[in-house]
Amino acid sequence: MPAQIIDGKAVAAAVEQEVRADLAKLPYKPGLVAVRVGNDPASEVYVRNKARKAKELGLHGTELVFDALMREDDLLSEIRQLNRDNNVDGILVQLPLPKQIDPKKVIDAIDPAKDVDGFHPINVGLLHLGRPTLVPCTPAGVMRLIGSTGVEIAGKRAAVIGRSDIVGKPVAALLLRENATVTICHSRTRDLPGIVREADIVVAAIGKPRFVTAEMIKRDAIVIDVGINRLDGKLAGDVDFDRVREVASWITPVPGGVGPMTIAMLMKNTVTAAQKRRG
Ligand code: NDP
């Protein structure tokens, strides 16, 4: 029997409903500010979509756009101002930034309590300590998708392919927190197919279309595909969906899997940040 499809749109819609319900209980509108520097076309779309979704759900969504030639110091002082603004609950800075600006300095400047992307070193540290924190949105979305299958994570073997700070590492930390036995694979891993074949849960975050083939997948594994690649003018994940589907028990499609979760989890993080900061 082919794998069941994990419907990211449906799970994201459920998360959005939770956000609406939480918002209805708050006497104020949490504020999310998305900062963009320059006019990278992909960033423009991402930031616009984030601000739009915030407004649609009833948050106060603002887009701050600065010139591509902006100085690093000026961006840092804008961030400090947002940190001080009591109406701002969540700050996100869309990456990549122009080359004169060091993204590490910018992330470090964000108040950890408002760091809804979960990239600040304090939040990263808390995540790896297994303590409550603002969790990066895509990894949080991956966990919700795995959770939606109803399959118990504790005790399972998980392989995370990719070790980026944005996806691979936080996904691995979250799976470990749920008591999976986690292996992180990367470009220097020896016998990657052999390792992945042992896994009950596979999360692919590589950025290479159809890298994960059916031969790498254990029968009845759960396969989460984070990859977004362009192949022959279409979107393709990191997993060879059609063939892996014949082996796995659950699988996410691309598009319509992890993608829709990221913005939904961002909205959830903004509400969480507001509730925590404002009491
Ligand atoms: P990065 O490029 O930062 O990281 C890719 C990782 O894959 C690296 O750790 C790299 O290893 C590893 N890798 C690359 N080639 C191989 C290989 N041949 N064998 C084993 N490992 C390999 O990417 P991101 O983590 O930022 O993103 C991964 C994918 O997820 C991309 O397609 C991206 O577009 C997508 N994405 C989707 C999101 C969503 O909302 N759905 C959000 C964020 C990302 P090494 O460290 O050794 O170089």
3D architecture notes:
The protein is α/β, with parallel strands linked by helices and 279 residues long. The chain has 2 domains: 86 residues, Rossmann fold (3-Layer(aba) Sandwich); 123 residues, NAD(P)-binding Rossmann-like Domain (Rossmann fold, 3-Layer(aba) Sandwich), CATH 3.40.50.720. It is 41% helix and 16% strand. The protein has 10 helices and 11 strands. Strands 1-11-8-7-5-6 form a 6-stranded parallel β-sheet. Strand 9 and strand 10 form a beta hairpin. Helix 1 runs parallel beside helix 10, helix 2 crosses helix 10 and helix 6 crosses helix 7. It is globular and about 55 Å long. The chain starts with a strand and ends with a helix. The model has no long low-confidence stretch (mean pLDDT 97). The protein binds NADPH dihydro-nicotinamide-adenine-dinucleotide phosphate.
* Computed Rg: 19 Å
What is the count of distinct domains? Answer: 2
The H-and-E topology, N to C, reads as EHEHEHEHHHEHEHEEEEHEH
- Please give the share of residues in helix: 40-55%
Cα end-to-end separation? 49 Å
- CATH class division of the largest domain: Alpha Beta
Number of strands: 11
Largest sheet: 6 strands, parallel
Shape: globular
Beta-strand percentage range:
15-25%
Helix/sheet category: alpha/beta
CATH fold-level topology of the largest domain:
Rossmann fold
> What's the CATH architecture name of the largest domain?
3-Layer(aba) Sandwich
Main attributes?
279 residues, Rossmann fold, 6-stranded parallel beta sheet, 3-stranded parallel beta sheet, 10 helices, 11 strands, 41% helix, binds NADPH dihydro-nicotinamide-adenine-dinucleotide phosphate
